Amino acid sequence: MTDTSVETKVTRNQWWDVWDQFRSHKGAMLGAIVFFIIVFAILFGPMLWPYDATTIDIRSRNQGPSWAHPMGTDQLGRDTMARVMSGGRVSLAVGMTAMVIALVVGTLIGVLAGYFKRLDGILMRLTDLFLALPLLPLLLVIIMLFRDKLSANFGPEGGIFVLMVSAIGMTSWMQTARIVRGDVLALKEREFVLAARSIGTPNTQMITRHVLPNVMSPIMVSATLGIATAIITESALSFLGLGFPPDFPTWGRLLRDGTDFLQQFPERAIWPGLLISLTVLGVNYMGDGLRDALDPRIRGR
Q1: Separation between Cα atoms, residue 234 and residue 255, nearest integer Å
Q2: Is 242 helix (H, G, I), strand (E, B) or coil?
Q3: Total-model pTM
Q4: Which stretches of 116-249 are DSSP H helices?
Q5: Cα–Cα distance between 266 and 252 in angstroms, integer?
Q6: How far apart are alpha carbons 43 and 88 in whole angstroms?
């Protein structure tokens, strides 16, 4: 009787290959480190920092950087560092929520346009229409029309949050829709999709089981870029004075307030502007790394 040894080969999860490719991208790793440091600071910093973002101390107004106030104080004596951390929460919340709305709408339109030929023309012409619109003037008109109504229903801060998130999300889905549509058109001709269709798989099951999982890569890349776009848009609207109320800090609002004291206290505009730039750069580098890591043609190199 002879002993036979059966060799069992442990298959490696493909996500480990994605992680190996992602961490080999130095810019993506640096961007991820910077982004998560900023996120950690704005989420947990207010719990550890002794000053509140809304506490007014007239005796400490217009102070420069010091050990007590590393970023100085504003014209009402409020700690700038506390306001920057509080404003980062709002800006990132707007960016994340608007990104989710844009991804859901863009993915839905892209999948329907790519999978159903009769809907392709209508949905792509709608996408072209939104792409042709001047987005910043459109956002200004939307905010001016619905600001008072939503503020009356949800409160000054809640109404502006709902309005900003909805307006930014509903005007940022077009690029995602085009990318997803192109991938779906290519997937429709793949062998496994044709085989599933030949055995009578319903369209809903075909989309949820075979199409959507295979377009997750461009969706994830679009998600990272969508966060950066939403943060910049919110900052621009707040800088123009059409965002949250003056006593409700965001990075864009702090940047606007800092321009009034730019000659005397330039750090008031430098700190929120620097954090906006670092966050957007970090997210963009992460998206660049994810794009390379999720592409199987590059991942094997």
Answers
A1: 12
A2: coil
A3: 0.82
A4: 117-132, 135-154, 156-170, 174-187, 191-198, 203-206, 216-239
A5: 15
A6: 9
